[in-house]
Amino acid sequence: MGALAWKLPNPAEVERRDDQRVEVSLLGRFMRSDRQEFDCESIDASPDGVAFSSHAGVQHGERIVAYLNQIGRVEGRVARIFSGGFAIRMNVPPAKRDKLARQLVWLANRQTLGLPQDRRHERIAPRDRYTILQLANGREYTATLIDISMSGAALNVDCEPPIGTRVVVGSTPAEVVRHVNCGIAVEFLSPLPAEEFGESTTI
């Protein structure tokens, strides 16, 4: 049988079985307890955990905060270490489990079929590119928006808050999910309304 004959589990099955994982390859970065950051790639995932390909020397039980392309922020504690990687155990709230399960199966199906990436959260360059980044301690930095989507933004700014830091971009609460050249990428705590999203969007 060819690869397309393999039957992926449906989302309900993924949610019911703690150890039911789907193979899904997503690039990203993760932060260890000592705030060191490393590139990574997911091997497989479920609503209960993610296995990562990485050569970082993590410790069993260590808290990991990761940002994976197309999924966003995930966090948990190292439950298993193996040659070339490790796996974390997550405690996802029930309200988010079904959504995550469906997202994982959808991504796995697309990768199996070789379909292009989802464009629901397409990034655009806003007309008004200047904004203010405010940290939790009240300190403010002038920033330039590189691009924005309904779920987040990338900006040039002269500071580098740790991944997981809560910030405010303009008037929009967000969380730092990765560092980029000369700046950061953030994920909004609440997505921007689709009907209001466009080049004239201000955040």
Produce a short descriptive summary.
This protein is mainly beta and 203 residues long.
Kindly describe this structure.
- The chain folds into 2 domains: 3-113, predicted glycosyltransferase like domains (Thrombin, subunit H); 130-196, Beta Barrel (Thrombin, subunit H).
- The strands form 2 sheets. It has a 6-stranded antiparallel beta barrel with strand order 2-3-4-7-6-5. Strands 8-9-10-13-12-11 form a 6-stranded antiparallel barrel.
- With 203 residues, it is mainly β.
- It has helices at 11-16, 94-113; strands spanning 22-23, 27-31, 37-46, 49-53, 63-68, 72-82, 85-89, 130-134, 140-148, 152-157, 166-169, 172-180, 183-188.
Topology:
Layout lengths: L10 H6 L5 E2 L3 E5 L5 E10 L2 E5 L9 E6 L3 E11 L2 E5 L4 H20 L16 E5 L5 E9 L3 E6 L8 E4 L2 E9 L2 E6 L15
Antiparallel strand pairs: 1-3, 2-3, 2-5, 3-4, 4-7, 5-6, 6-7, 8-9, 8-11, 9-10, 10-13, 11-12, 12-13
